[in-house]
Amino acid sequence: MSTPNRAEINRANAQHSTGPKTSEGKQRSSLNALRHGLTGQIVVMPTEDLQAYQSHLESFTDEYNPKGATEAHLVQALADTSWRLNRVASLETNLLTLGVASAGNPFSDSPQQVQDAMSIVAALESQSKALANLSMHSQRLSRQFERTVVQLRDLQKTRKAQEEHDLSDLLDITEMYESKGETYDPSEDGFVFSEDEIDDAIRARNRERLIEEAYEHRLESAA
User: What pTM was estimated for this model as a whole?
Assistant: First the structure.
């Protein structure tokens, strides 16, 4: 009799799985959809939309185009901090709405504009402590966001400067080999640029040379 393979065993076991049975297990399972795949941490509240958060994160990734783990981590931190700042603004609105809805209205005989204004004032007074806490939280998040932006930009500036230097060296070596009729393999010297990046660098260098030649030609013509 043949031995069942692993795939058959897994399919058989899956038929007997009914998922979490306790209320605690079901709650943890429901939160799985709100977890970030990289960190496994809860990043959105149960009332928020994970897909909206993922689109939010993608917009930051598209803007900064991170390379390497450190840049990716900083972009993730920016997106998370911005998401939490947006949440603070929403919570402030909800607190004021709650205060307006729960407060009595001693100005019921006044014009509607007066009633609305007084309701907002009463809401601000009744929720002053919570609003102050949110304001402090918002300021802390704003400072954190600004520091992370500076850190990310400095890191990317240093990385791009190094890439430009390495690309220039690569092109110099390539031209030296070509002048000897030989082929150069950049990977032999540890260069890890893609063919597209190398081609773009070659075109940029050729453009610079053409511009310099045109400028020198104009000077000679004017002399």
Answer: 0.61
